């Protein structure tokens, strides 16, 4: 594969962006205390990041579609780096919310553009592999970024962590400046074209499945640190270790999900993943019984959830063979909407009841996703496909 080292540099940039998005799950209690807000209010720092990535990023990408991809990537990375530097200042909670919005918008654009650039730097038959490497960078942020960040924050504070990641992001920025050529779109793609696929009921249903299964995941995992604290006697250092294992399972789940989708089909993989995800959310009710049961359930939960993503993306590509990039771009927005939905509803549950009820809300969301998947796949099996036409 051509330019393999540059692809890994792009994956490094996405890894750092993903770490900034997900790190709140490990330091949410610490940030809540420092900012003088409740845990549910601190959860909004996840919500606004996801909403910015889901709403603002696609719009800005559409508006800048004719711009040089290299310049756009460097600009958004630069904004991302600067926003992390601002976290060193002792700012009010409301100001930190705005910074998270900037991080979500700039990081969301940079992630999508990094995938677009990667596909243009390799041979046509290697584009899927290139995108896979970029997505590995994203899942690796859970494997390494979140637990290491949680451990680092325990020693030096969460503000220093944001600054450190901002400084590390300078490295891929410099390499992109030196090694990535100017890249422009050959054909104009408008926001209207990106949204046109939403008129297709089959694709819309598939996107709603993404929304609910990611929402069910985010409902619990956003608040996994206080959940583990409430159901076990683990210290913050031990919780960092558990999150590291969970991250490894997410990485393995992504690989296994892709391989299973190729071998058994995307529909089989999606349904299996959703059933396992729902079952583990139910089993979290037994979390206080035994620590090892809790850890095992969490590991299977992560494996199941992350195995769905590659199969879901493959399924969307088959639904929109002429415009796979647009379908995946909109799916990325729905993933971010799912994170926002889950973290927002989870915060509402915590503020009114207890963190121990989060798994039931997650189970309800995943159940909706599974029912929709069964209905959709049965409809498709009966031969009632809706062709995708993008003008």
UniProtKB/TrEMBL annotation:
Residues 6-385 form the Major facilitator superfamily (MFS) profile domain. InterPro entries: MFS, MFS_dom, MFS_Efflux_Transporters, MFS_trans_sf, Tet-R_TetA/multi-R_MdtG-like. It is found in: Cell membrane. CDD domains: MFS_NepI_like. Its main location: membrane. It is a multi-pass membrane protein. It holds the Pfam family MFS_1. The keyword Nucleus does not apply. Keywords: Cell membrane, Membrane, Transmembrane, Transmembrane helix, Transport. The chain crosses the membrane at residues 7-24, 44-65, 72-91, 97-118, 130-152, 158-177, 197-219, 239-258, 279-306, 326-350, 357-377. It comes from the Bacteria. This is MFS transporter.
């Amino acid at each position: 594969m051509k330019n393999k080292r540059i692809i890994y540099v792009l994956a490094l940039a996405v890894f750092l962006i993903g770490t900034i998005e997900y790190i709140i799950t490990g330091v949410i209690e610490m940030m809540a205390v420092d900012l003088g807000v409740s845990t549910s209010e601190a959860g909004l720092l996840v919500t606004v990041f996801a909403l910015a990535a889901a709403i603002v990023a696609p719009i800005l990408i559409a508006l800048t579609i004719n711009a040089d991809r290299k310049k756009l990537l460097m600009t958004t990375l630069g904004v991302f780096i600067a926003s992390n530097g601002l976290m060193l200042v002792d700012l009010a909670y409301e100001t930190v919310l705005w910074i998270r919005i900037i991080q979500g918008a700039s990081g969301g654009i940079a992630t999508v553009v990094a995938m677009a650039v990667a596909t243009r730097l390799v041979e046509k038959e290697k584009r899927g592999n290139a995108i896979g490497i970029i997505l590995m960078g994203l899942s690796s942020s859970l494997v390494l970024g979140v637990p290491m960040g949680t451990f680092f924050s325990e020693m030096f504070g969460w503000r220093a962590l944001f600054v450190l990641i901002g400084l590390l992001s300078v490295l891929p920025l410099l390499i992109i400046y030196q090694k990535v050529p100017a890249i422009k779109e050959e054909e104009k793609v408008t926001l209207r074209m990106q949204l046109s696929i939403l008129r297709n009921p089959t694709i819309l249903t598939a996107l709603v499945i993404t929304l609910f299964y990611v929402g069910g995941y985010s409902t619990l995992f956003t608040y996994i640190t206080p959940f583990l604290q409430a159901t076990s006697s683990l210290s913050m250092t031990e919780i960092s270790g558990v999150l590291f294992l969970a991250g490894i399972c997410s990485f393995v789940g992504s690989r296994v999900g892709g391989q299973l989708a190729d071998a058994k089909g995307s529909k089989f993989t999606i349904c299996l993943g959703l059933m396992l995800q729902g079952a583990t959310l139910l089993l979290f009710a037994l979390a206080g019984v035994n620590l090892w049961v809790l850890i095992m359930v969490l590991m299977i939960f992560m494996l199941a959830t992350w195995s769905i993503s590659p199969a879901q993306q493959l399924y969307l590509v088959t639904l929109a063979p002429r415009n796979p990039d647009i379908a995946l771009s909109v799916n990325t927005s729905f993933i971010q909407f799912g994170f926002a939905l889950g973290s927002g509803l989870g915060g509402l549950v915590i503020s009114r009841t207890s963190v121990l009820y989060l798994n039931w809300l997650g189970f309800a969301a995943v159940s909706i996703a599974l029912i929709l998947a069964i209905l959709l796949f049965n409809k498709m099996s009966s031969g009632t496909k809706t062709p995708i036409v993008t003008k």
